[in-house]
Design brief:
By secondary structure, the chain is mainly alpha-helical. The chain is built from four helices and no strands.
């Protein structure tokens, strides 16, 4: 599997909105390259692959809670976009 894009360090405010934008490219890579349940990532029991993504963001300086929230938000956005496309 090709490597996922890097996650930049927080630049200024480490808000959820900023984390979403920082993590988005890696989230998209993960969804495209791996057999993962985006539906589960949107719920309370996040799959290990997405937890690992949040931990990777944490290693770059994001708090785990903010990174995990960003992953959940991205999952919700992905599912919403997929639902809108299907309609």
């Amino acid at each position: 599997m090709p490597p996922m894009q890097s996650i930049p360090r927080p630049d200024g405010d480490a808000t959820l909105e900023n984390a979403v934008e920082a993590i988005r490219p890696s989230f998209d890579d993960l969804v495209e390259l791996a057999a993962v349940s985006v539906e589960a990532a949107a719920g309370p029991e996040m799959p290990e692959a997405f937890v690992a993504l949040a931990r990777r963001a944490e290693s770059m300086g994001w708090t785990f809670d903010v990174a995990q929230g960003a992953v959940r938000q991205l999952a919700h956005e992905y599912l919403g976009a997929r639902g809108a496309f299907a309609d």
